[in-house]
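pinging the channel bc i need a second pair of eyes. not urgent but kinda urgent?? the chain im working w is below, pasted from the shared doc
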Amino acid sequence: MPESRARTAARTVAGPAVRRMRRELQWRRCPTELDLATAPPDDFPHTVAHHATPLFRRLAGVEDQLQVNKVVNLRLAVARLDGVVLQPEQRLSFWYRVRRPTRRRGFQEGLVLRQGRLDKGVGGGLCQLTNLIHWMTLYTPLTVVERWRHSYDMFPDIGRTQPFGTGATCAWPVLDLQIENRTTVAFRLALRVTETELQGEWTAQVPIATSYEVYEAHHAMTNDAPGVFTRHNVIRRRVFDGEHVQVDDELVTVNQARMRYQPFLESGR
């Protein structure tokens, strides 16, 4: 086997183990930053951001049971995250709190995305939770320090309530969502799974004067080859002071994703 092919094969075999080791090392280096306490909601009476997403959506070719199982997975993860307090200079790591989703811990097979294809896997569906936390965080002064975007756009924008590309995918333990508190105020994360919705809220001990507006600054779909389409967009957010005067306009992310459905191409979107 040529040397280059041998190296590629070695990386393919060793890569996941190396990435897991790097994540464990990161967690071990800063345990005091990651070990978050919990607190009752009465200590954090000021709502900073909130959002809710439906638990069940009709998806072509997807077993209904996978969505039922997803709700089980969400309840288990929410139990590990609800009520955590992010003090100044602390960091919230999604996977550090939730830990590995296994059958032994009660996690079930849900929908997962692997290499652009829908599949099933234990703990599937937790991306709905990281999506929600990420979206809410964009409306706070907290800082997202690690977020992974989806490489594929799987479904048309039917019922979409927020811009494409504002979610955050997750995969144990490499693809994590991590949020730092670089302010002087403590924040509390509240999460709840109802019969129909996943609900979340960031609250603070004192009123937060700064407010935000997240928006899509650019959007395009390109036909790169016969039957190959790519979706592009830019997400930004406007920052307002206590008098609702705009003081900044920040870049959030630039997205590019291969489309797994046939788009209707037009100028703009």
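so Residues 33-207 form one domain. and The chain is about 25% helix and 35% strand. — does that match what u expected or am i reading it wrong
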